[in-house]
Amino acid sequence: xxxxxAKIEHWFTDQNWxxxxxxxxxxxAFERRQNTLLIAPTGGGKTLAGFLPSLIDLSDKPxxxxxxxxxxxxxxxxxxxxxIERNLNRPVDDLNLPIKIGVRTGDTKSYQRxxxxxxxxxxxxxxxxxxxxxxxxPDAEHYFSNLKTVIIDELHSFATNKRGDFTSLALxxxxxxxxxxxxxxxxxxxxDADSAAKWLGPTGSPAHVLEVKGDAAPRIQIMDPxxxxxxxxxxxxxxxxxxxxxxxxxxxxxxxxxxxxxxELLFQQLWQINDDHLPIGLYHGSLSRERRQRTExxxxxxxxxxxxxxxxxxxxxxxxxxDLILQVGAPKGVSRLLQRIGRSNHRMDEPSEALxxxxxxxxxxxxxxxxxxxxxxxxxxxxxxxxxxxxxxQYIVNRACAGKFKKRQTLNEIRSAWPYRNLAKSDFxxxxxxxxxxxxxxxxxxxxxxxxxxxxxxxxxxxxQARRHRMNIGTIxxxxxxxxxxxxxxxxxxxxxIGDIEERFVMGLAPGDTFLFGGEVLRYHGVRDMALEAxxxxxxxxxxxxxxxxxxxxxxxxxxxxxxxxxxxxQNWNTLxxxxxxxxxxxxxxxxLPQEAGVLIESFFDRGVNVIVVxxxxxxxxxxxxxxxxxxRMETLGFKPLTYSITDYALTITSMEPVEDxxxxxxxxxxxxxxxxxxxxxxxxxxxxRKIATIAGLTEQRLPGAKRTMKQVTFxxxxxxxxxxxYDPDHILLRIxxxxxxxDLLDIPRLRNWLADVQGRVTHxxxxxxxxxxxxxxxxxxxxxxxxxxxxxILERASHDSQAAMRLNKVQEFINDRETNS
Amino acid sequence: MxxxxxxxxxxxxxxxxxxxxxxxxxxxxxxxxDMHLEKGSYLREVGRSVLPAFDTQDTIARLRxxxxxxxxxxxxxxxxxxHDIHADQRLSPEASSQxxxxxxxxxxxxxxxGNHDPDIPSxxxxxxxxxxxxxxxxxxxxxxxHAAGINICGHYHPKAKxxxxxxxxxAPCFAISEDRIIMPxxxxxxxxxxxxxxxxxxxxxxxxxxxxxxxxxLFTIRYETQEQTY
Lengths: 822, 230
Prior knowledge:
The structure holds two protein chains of two kinds.
Chain A: H1 6-14, H2 21-31, E1 36-39, H3 46-59, E2 71-74, H4 78-94, E3 101-104, H5 110-118, E4 123-126, H6 128-135, H7 140-143, E5 149-152, H8 162-177, E6 182-187, H9 193-200, E7 208-211, E8 219-222, H10 240-249, E9 253-256, H11 260-272, E10 280-283, H12 289-300, E11 306-309, E12 324-328, H13 334-341, E13 353-357, H14 361-375, H15 389-402, H16 407-415, H17 425-437, E14 451-454, E15 457-460, H18 463-471, E16 481-486, E17 496-502, H19 503-507, E18 514-517, E19 520-528, E20 531-536, H20 557-568, H21 578-590, E21 599-606, E22 609-615, H22 620-636, E23 641-646, E24 651-655, H23 673-681, H24 683-695, H25 717-727, H26 732-745, H27 748-758, E25 762-766, H28 775-778, E26 785-786, H29 788-821
Parallel strand pairs in A: 1-6, 1-7, 2-4, 2-5, 3-4, 5-6, 8-13, 9-11, 9-12, 10-11, 12-13, 16-20, 21-25
Antiparallel strand pairs in A: 14-15, 16-17, 18-19, 19-20, 21-22, 22-24, 23-24, 23-26
Chain B: E1 4-9, E2 12-17, E3 21-24, E4 29-32, H1 39-45, H2 55-70, E5 74-77, H3 87-90, H4 93-102, E6 108-112, E7 127-129, E8 132-134, E9 137-139, E10 150-153, E11 158-164, E12 167-176, E13 180-182, E14 193-194, H5 198-203, E15 209-214, E16 217-222
Parallel strand pairs in B: 4-5, 5-6, 6-7, 9-10, 10-13, 11-14
Antiparallel strand pairs in B: 1-2, 2-3, 3-4, 8-9, 11-12, 12-13, 12-15, 15-16
Protein name (chain B): Metallophosphatase
Pfam family, one (chain B): Metallophos
InterPro entries (chain B): Calcineurin-like_PHP (IPR004843), Metallo-depent_PP-like (IPR029052), PdeM-like (IPR026336), Pesterase_MJ0037-like (IPR024173)
C-alpha cells in the first residue's frame, strides 16, 4: 500500500478520520498515471479521494516554483465549487501547504478572473461552461500545459446529457493541450459502470473502475397523513402540518420538492403555520447569488432548521449536520432519490433518514416502488446516446476562438470524446459549413459567418463573433429572464435585485398583480430597464405563483415498470399507506387493475365529452407522442378529438364522438402513417429547434450591448423554423431538431417498443364514469393541449353561437318594428 | 380556399378577407394595414433578434397574391407600411422592384403615412397621402371620426382570444363597431393588442363584433360580454 506523507496522515488522525483504502488506491492510480472512475456512495469522502493525490503531490512543491495549473476540478454545480474550496482550504491552512486554490464559475468577479489568468492557482475549481470559456482564449495552450489531473465530480449526474457531451469535448481538448494528465471521475452508485468508464476515458481506452460498496441502507418511510390524500395534482398543502411536525423532530432538515414553483408554495405554507418561528429557508436556482450563498452558509453552520429546495441542493460534500431528508412529491427515479437521501447524515457508516410525502395516490405507489428498489440495491438504467450535434458546432466555434484549426485534427479531437466516437466525416463537414456561413438560406447574412477559411486552417471571422460566442457558451437553454428588483415600498426609489424570473410569466402580469418570489408575496409595479419592479404586498394577498419553466422531471423506465408491477398484484400493496390500498381496491372493483404486460384503457362520458384514458405508465414523453399520433388517427377516422393531456402514467384524450374499437387506435402502423404527417407539422420539432438554434449559435440568450431601454421583443423562432422549412428544408439544424425531438421530447424508440409489447393485449373497459385510476389524469384537464382542428372547432362553435344569437336579435328587432309600425 | 365575408355598412359593402385584408367592391379598392416591412431587419439591427426573418419577402408575396386575386384599381396601405424611417436602406432591390411591379397603370398604390413611416422610401413608387376618402369610407392610419360614413383604420393590430372548456384560441381580427373598422395588421412579423386591453377599449368602447382570421378562415363573433370573449 502506498505511503502517504506523515503530516497528511496526522492531519486525518487529528480530525478523527482515517484514510480509507480506496482513497489510498486513488493515490496509487495517480502514481501509475491511470484514468480512474471512482464509484462510491454519497458522503463517503469521495471528493477528498479525488483531491488527495494532488494535495500529496503539491505538498512538497519547492518555494518559488512558477505558478502553473496542476489540478482542474469540474463540477456540474457552481454551489459545489464554493463548498469544496472551503473544505480543501482546511487541510491546506492547517498544514500550511504551499497550495493555492481558485474558483472559476459564472459567479466569479471579473478582477478575480483576470488575476487567475495571469497567475494560475495550483488547483482550479470550475464548471464545464467556465472551462470551455477558458479553452476559448488563445492562451489556453499555455495555461493548461502543465496540467496533471482533471477531476470530474458527480459524473453520473450529467454524463448522459448534452452537458456531458459538452464536457467530454472540453476534456478532449485538454488532452491535446496537456497530453500527460490523467482523469479522475467521481460518481455515485450507478447501474452501468462500464459505459461511464468508457465516457470518462478517451475513445477506445475506458477508465479503470474502482467501486466502493457498503453504504448503510437508508431508513425511508412514506408519510401516512391523517388528512386525505388529494386524488391528483402535486400540491402538498394537505400534509403541511405533518411536514412541519417532522421538521420539529429533527435538528436540521432538507425538504426536497420537484419544481421551483413548488418550493415557493411549500415555503409559504410552512411559514403560515410556523408558530415556533423556526428558521426555515428557501433555495432554488432563480434566487440571486447573494441569497443562495447566504443560505448555503447558514446550512453549513447549522443555523437553519429546514430548507425547502429543488434539486439545486442535491449535490455537495458537506451540508453540516442534516439529519432528515423530506421528499415531497414523487421521486421520479431511484438514483435521484438516493442522491437526495444521501444529503443527510453525511457519513458512510450510518444510515440516512428520510420521509417521503407523496401528493397523490400514484405518487405514493411510486414512492413505495423506489423504496423497495433501494432496499434491493437496484438503480435506474442510464441511457447513453451519441453526442449532440448542436454541441459539436459550439465546440467548433470555441476551438476557432482560441486560434486557427485544421479540420482533420479537430475531427480527431471530437471523435476522441467518447460520445462522438461515431461522428461521420460528412456530418462534421456540414457542421463546419454551418459555422462558416449559416448554411444555404442564411448565407447572405454576415451574422452567421462565424468562421473564415484560410490556407492555414479555419479561424474565427471577427472579434465580435468571438465575443458573441463567449457570452453564450453552454448547453442550458432557458426562457428569457428578467431581473426581479425589490423595493421596500411602493414609493421607494431604491431597489435591490433578488433574483430572476421568466419573461413569459411577466407577460401575464398586470400592474397591481401579486406573485410569490423568494418566499414573499410581491406586488408587481412594472418593467423598467430589463427588470421587473415590485414591492412587498399587503398581508393576506393571494399571490399568483411564478411559472418557472423546466420543472418536469422525467419518470425513469425502471420506476415506471416497478409501478406497473406493484399495481398488478394486491399481494404487494402492504407497503402502501392504507388510504392508497383502499383506492386501489375500489379501482379493482369498479374497473380493472393495469397488468404487468399489456395496457389498460378506460373510456367514459364526462361533462359533455367522450374521454379515453390510456394507462400506459410509460412517462410523459411516450404519452405525449402517443397523444399526437392517436388524436391524428382519431381525426382521420372522424371521431373529432378535442384535446389531450398527459401525466407520467396516463394519456387522456377527449373527443366529440365515442370510440368503440379503441384497440385499433393503438396498432403499430400509427408509427408509419400518422408519424409521417406528424413530422411535417411537428410542434415538437419547433420546440427542440428553439433550443438547438441557441446551442448551435444561430440565436443567442445574451447579446453584447443590447440596449436597456428597449422594449422587450419576444422573438419567434417558430417563424424562422417555417422560413428554413420553406427555403432550406435540408438545413442541418432542421435535421438535428427532428432527430432530437424524436428522441428527447417524444422518445419514439421507447414508444415503438411499447406499442409492439401491447399488441393483442389491450384491455378496454367502457365505464359509466371516471374510475379511481383515471381521476388523477382527469385533474390535468385545463392543462391540456388543443388539437389543430379543434381550434377551428372552438372558433366555429363560438361564431355559430354568436350567429344564432344574432338571428334571435333579428327576430326581436322585427317584432319591435312591427309593433312600432302598427 | 380563403374565406371572405361581406359586411354591409351605412357607407356600402366591404369584403373582409381572411388573409387580413379588405376590399371595397364599389371602388375596386384593396386595403391592408400595418405591413411593417423590414421589421425583421430592424430588430436584428438593434440587436433584439438575430435570425433573418424573410418577413418582407413573405409580406410582399402575400400582397401580390391578393392583388392577383382581386385585380383592384388601387391598393391602399393604411400606414405603418415600413417599420422605421431607415427601412429603405435595408429594403432589398428585389423587394423594391416587386413593390414597383405591383404599382401599375391599372393599379395605383397609395401609401397613407403612419407613425412608423412619416415618409415612404423614395425607391418605392405610389402616391403618399395623409388620408383618403372614397365613397363613404374614410381611410386613415389612426382612428378618425366620420360623421356619416365609416372610418377604416389600422395602427392597433387588434387580436382576440376565444375561450372554451376545451382550450382557447388567439388570432388577429377585424374589430368592428357601428362607424369604424380597425384592420388586423398585415405584416408577417407583427404582434397584436387584445381587444379587451384597456388601451383598445379606450379607442373602441363600442366594439360590436370581431372577425377573427385563422388558417384562411374568418370567424365573426359578436362582442358582448367579457365572459364570452376576452
